[in-house]
Structures are given as structure tokens and as C-alpha cells.
Design the sequence.
């Protein structure tokens, strides 16, 4: 499917917004759920965009930037794999498979972009010497456009070439066993995201909750909202009852025998009354 | 008189709202040298503008002060911003607060708050809301992306606004609040919720199917062929056992510093080979 000029311009914009979202991590425009949906909308197949978004989102669940460590790039992966699926007539499994190397490439590009922005930081030092607030604003926001281009330019290149025979022939030449195998792998790679999240919160004493969630899902019939409510109740109860948070109260009573004796007396009085 | 003047607040709705608006673009200039440094000055601009309307040496010193290295979980920057604004205000009024005190406070808060913010926002809130949205999106429902976008951003914007305001009003007292155990309770509570939901997701949304046939037997009474597959046996034991084991394997590999992308590529290879051999479907 060849893309119209309007579609290409809109893709450039959507990719730019996703690129900005990726560094900001505020509005979440770079997450597959949003980026794939918007790409699908531009390409005229919203439903497919949403489905790819949901599938990729499950895979990318644990992709997060912590400290200086950069996660695989969800923005580039989402936009380009959606273009391949919708405009390149690939099935979703193949699109997901393509998303992974794209996420790796995006990770490299994001490291480059975050190195380039060191220049903006140095520009800010100069602006501070001059007491120039306006310049601080300009530098800070300009750096955002570096991040926009980081995704928008690769997306533009793909959008311009996806309709060509060379790319179509290449995509068409992928053997069936690879596509089938990638679909099988797609069902499994979601655990990488889960493992990342679990590792982050992993405390030996809290691991029973993981097994409880697993077992309730295996044998129960709750949907995710139901599981969320049960999880919230468990969390509240755990925090209320855990000795970890009740020690101060116990320590107070121990340190103040007078006080505890009083309350004991009161209790006895009440009972006698 | 002097004490009265100290209690008077210099920043009103206008400055708070402006700083809040800017805080939505906190990480725009993230860089490997000083990370959020330029970002922090960017969000401080409305406050510093009010304190130093004239372009003098004091203003320039204040600007330089906030270009030092800074990094935390981005949303947790908001309470720190509030406290910093309160300190800058006191300093302007003549309180004996030097550059070291302000930066010491920022650096002192950014670590502990990131330690709480990362598991709460990236470990619990986003994965759970995203999983909820993705579940709907897999069926092609537009509600999935909308739910994710609205729910997450309502939480985020609400927290950013409230905590900035709260940080400014409580000032350095916030540190006392922090050590009061509330943050720790939040971290533990969100870990309980997060782990519980992850357990459920491992079970429900991972598909590993091993159609490998273990035995074929003919039912002597009906003459039908009974096929027993590896998957059938596993499902009778605990449905989802293989995904759980795979999750533990991946967790172990990640702790051994194997890159997530390497693991994903490894799973691709296993998938293709397994499919080719007919062991996986």
C-alpha cells in the first residue's frame, strides 16, 4: 500500500510526538498502546493498530528507564512495526518480531540523542552566567526536538520505502517456519517484561504474593479488575498487620510501662463495670 | 515584625501553576552529563523570576545553583521542587541558607524518593494500568488505549500538582514526613500489589503450548484413540506452570546482567526451532 503525502506528514508528526514522549515519560505517548493506535489511525486501520499496541504493550511492560540505564526503545519499535504490518501487509506476529531489533536500534539512538543534549546543558551554563531565563526555556525545549527527530526521521524513511517493490519482496520472502516460530515466541517473550518488573520489587518476604496471584489466576475466574481489587486489599492488610510497621507502637508501650498500666487498668475497670 | 515577614508566602497560585505546567516537560533535556540539571532549572524559573526580578549577580548565582547534577524518578521531582522553592524563598528573605544546604537537600531527597518512586510508578502503577488497557486492546477495543492514557495521566498529574504544593507548604518538614514510615509503607504496599498482579499476568497472558505427544492409547471400550500430550499433563498439574518456570529463568538471567534484548532474541530462536521440530505451537 502506497502512502499519501498527508499520511506521510502525519506519520512524521506522530513519530515525533512518540519520540518526545519517550524522553519525557510523562504523557506516555511513546508506549505501544498509544503510539501504535495513533499510527493505525493515520494509516486507516485503527483496529489493527490497537491490536498491535496491546500485543507490544504486554511485551514492553517492564521496559523502564531507571537512573541512567536506558530501556529498549518502545517508541521506534511501535511506530515502525505498525507501518510494516498495515502498510507492508505483514501479519502481526512478523510485526512483533521486527519490533525487537527496532527497539534495540532505538536504544542506541536514544543514547546518542542523550549525549547530543550535553551541548544544550553547556549552553545553559552560559545562559546562567548571563542571567538569561528566556534562553534556559529555549534550550530546554529545543533538546526535546532532538528526541522528536530521533524517531521521526527513521519513521519517515520507512514510510517512504515501505510501498516499494524491493521492500515488499523482501518482506514477502520470509519463510513460513520463521513466521510461525516468531508467533510462538511472541507468546513467550512477554515473560521478559514481567521478570523485569518482578526483579525490581523482589523481596523474599513478599514473594508469596506472586505465587498467590499466579495460583488464583490458574484456578480462579477473576478478571484483571477483580484481581486488582484483591491485590489492593492484600496490600492494605499486609501494611496494617506487618510487624515491620507496628514496632514503634510496641516499643512505646515497652518504654512507658506507666502508660500501659493505665490502659490495662481502664480495661479491667470496664470489664468490672 | 521580622517573624511575621518570614511567614508570609512569596509564591502564589501563579508561580505554582506555572511550575506545575513546566514539570510536565521535566526530562526534555535529559543528558548523560548532568541528567535533569537543565530540567530542574527550567521548572525553577517561575520561582527564581519572582525572587530575582532584576538581572543581577544574585540571580545568576541562583541559576547556577540549580544547574548541578540531578536525577530522580521524574514525578518524585515535584515534592523536591516544592521544598526547594520554599528554601529559596527563605534564603531570599535572609535566612542563613547557603548553596550547599540547598543542593544537599536536593541530593539528599532524590535518592530515597527515586527508591520509592520507581517501584510505585514504573513497577506497579504503569504495568498494572497498561496490562488493563492491553487486555482490552488485544480484542481491538479503542477503550484499551483510552483507559491507559486517562487513568495513568490522572494519577500522574494529580500527584505532580498535589506534591508540588504540599512540598512548598511543608518545606523542610517534608523530610520528617518522609522518615515517618509513610513512604516505606507505600513502597511495601505497592510491591505486594505489583507482585500479586504479575503472578496473575504470568499465568494468564503467557502462552506456551507443547503439543508433543507422550502416548497414544486406544480406549478399549469405545475404540477411540486417546492422545496424551505434554501440555495436557502439565495443565492437569497446574495450568501455566511452564510460563512460571520460564519467568524464573529469565529473572535469574537478568540478575546475571544478561541484556533483556539478548534474552528476547534467545526466545525467538527457541520459538523458531521448537516450531520447526513441532515441539511448540
Sequence:
Amino acid at each position: 500500500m502506497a502512502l499519501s503525502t498527508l499520511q506521510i506528514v502525519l506519520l512524521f508528526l506522530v513519530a515525533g510526538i512518540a519520540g518526545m514522549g519517550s524522553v519525557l515519560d510523562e504523557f506516555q505517548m511513546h508506549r505501544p498502546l498509544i503510539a501504535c493506535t495513533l499510527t493505525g489511525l493515520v494509516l486507516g486501520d485503527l483496529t489493527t493498530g490497537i491490536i498491535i499496541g496491546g500485543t507490544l504493550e504486554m511485551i514492553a511492560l517492564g521496559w523502564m528507564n531507571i537512573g541512567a540505564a536506558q530501556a529498549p526503545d518502545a517508541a521506534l519499535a511501535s511506530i515502525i512495526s505498525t507501518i510494516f504490518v498495515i502498510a507492508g501487509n505483514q501479519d502481526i506476529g512478523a510485526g512483533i518480531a521486527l519490533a525487537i531489533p527496532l527497539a534495540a536500534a532505538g536504544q542506541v539512538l536514544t543514547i546518542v540523542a542523550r549525549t547530543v543534549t550535553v551541548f544544550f546543558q553547556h549552553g545553559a551554563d552560559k545562559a546562567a552566567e548571563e542571567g538569561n531565563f528566556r534562553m534556559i526555556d529555549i534550550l530546554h525545549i529545543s533538546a526535546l526536538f532532538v528526541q522528536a527527530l530521533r524517531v521521526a526521521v527513521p519513521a519517515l524513511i520507512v514510510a517512504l520505502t515501505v510501498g516499494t517493490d524491493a521492500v515488499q519482496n523482501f518482506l514477502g520472502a520470509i519463510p513460513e517456519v520463521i513466521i510461525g516460530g516468531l508467533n510462538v515466541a511472541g507468546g513467550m517473550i512477554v515473560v521478559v517484561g514481567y521478570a523485569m518488573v518482578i526483579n525490581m520489587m523482589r523481596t523474599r518476604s513478599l514473594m508469596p504474593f506472586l505465587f498467590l496471584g499466579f495460583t488464583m489466576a490458574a484456578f480462579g475466574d477473576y478478571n484483571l479488575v477483580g484481581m486488582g481489587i484483591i491485590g489492593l486489599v492484600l496490600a492494605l492488610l499486609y501494611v496494617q498487620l506487618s510487624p515491620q510497621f507496628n514496632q514503634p507502637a510496641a516499643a512505646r508501650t515497652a518504654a512507658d510501662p506507666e502508660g500501659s498500666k493505665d490502659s490495662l487498668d481502664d480495661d479491667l475497670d470496664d470489664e468490672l463495670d | 515584625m521580622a517573624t511575621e515577614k518570614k511567614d508570609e508566602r512569596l509564591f502564589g497560585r501563579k508561580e505554582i501553576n506555572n511550575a506545575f505546567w513546566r514539570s510536565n516537560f521535566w526530562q526534555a533535556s535529559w543528558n548523560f552529563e548532568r541528567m535533569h540539571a537543565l530540567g530542574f532549572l527550567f521548572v525553577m524559573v517561575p520561582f527564581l523570576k519572582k525572587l530575582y526580578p532584576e538581572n543581577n549577580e544574585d540571580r545568576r548565582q541562583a541559576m547556577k545553583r540549580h544547574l548541578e547534577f540531578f536525577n530522580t524518578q521524574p514525578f518524585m521531582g515535584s515534592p523536591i521542587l516544592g521544598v526547594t522553592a520554599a528554601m529559596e524563598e527563605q534564603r531570599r528573605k535572609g535566612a542563613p541558607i547557603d548553596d550547599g544546604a540547598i543542593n544537599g537537600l536536593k541530593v539528599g531527597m532524590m535518592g530515597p524518593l527515586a527508591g520509592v518512586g520507581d517501584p510505585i510508578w514504573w513497577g506497579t502503577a504503569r504495568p498494572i494500568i497498561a496490562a488493563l488497557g492491553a487486555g482490552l486492546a488485544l480484542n481491538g477495543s479503542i477503550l484499551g488505549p483510552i483507559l491507559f492514557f486517562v487513568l495513568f495521566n490522572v494519577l500522574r498529574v494529580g500527584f505532580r500538582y498535589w506534591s508540588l504544593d504540599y512540598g512548598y507548604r511543608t518545606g523542610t518538614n517534608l523530610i520528617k514526613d518522609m522518615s515517618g514510615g509513610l513512604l516505606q509503607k507505600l513502597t511495601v504496599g505497592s510491591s505486594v500489589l505489583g507482585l500479586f498482579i504479575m503472578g496473575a499476568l504470568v499465568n494468564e497472558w503467557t502462552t506456551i503450548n507443547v503439543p508433543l505427544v507422550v502416548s497414544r492409547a486406544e480406549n478399549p471400550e469405545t475404540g477411540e484413540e486417546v492422545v496424551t500430550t505434554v501440555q495436557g499433563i502439565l495443565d492437569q498439574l497446574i495450568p501455566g506452570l511452564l510460563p512460571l518456570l520460564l519467568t524464573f529463568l529469565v529473572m535469574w538471567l537478568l540478575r546475571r546482567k544478561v541484556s533483556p534484548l539478548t534474552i528476547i532474541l534467545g526466545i525467538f530462536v527457541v520459538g523458531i526451532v521448537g516450531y520447526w521440530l513441532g515441539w511448540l505451537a
Observations:
- The radius of gyration of chain B is 27 Å.
